[in-house]
Amino acid sequence: MIDMPAKKEAPEKEKLIGKAIKMSDLVGYQPGSVVSREVINKTTGTVTIFAFDEGEGLSTHSAPFDAMVVAVDGEVEITIDDQPNHLKAGDMIIMPAGHPHSVKALKKFKMLLIMIRSKE
Asked: Which CDD domains does the record cross-reference, listed alphabetically (predicted)?
């Protein structure tokens, strides 16, 4: 009998390529937590989907590049330069490079974060 090499599992991200997938199914809610899943990670940028339990968030910080948030599910308050912005599913906002921003889930909330690593 000939031993065949075990078929290697494709890396997690490769399983997503070329397939129609419901974005909100890529990450699940967990009580009292923020959960994230990186979908694309290239030298030119990243795409990450997040799930926030109600009341959870990200404290004030800044990033060296612009980042776009697309609300996938729920409601959130995203504050940029001390100005609150209320988003619901289907809304988007661009957080400018170098500006302080924070995220607070008003209800369970999922978002797609797209960051392009370019200063132009």
From this structure: cupin_HP0902-like
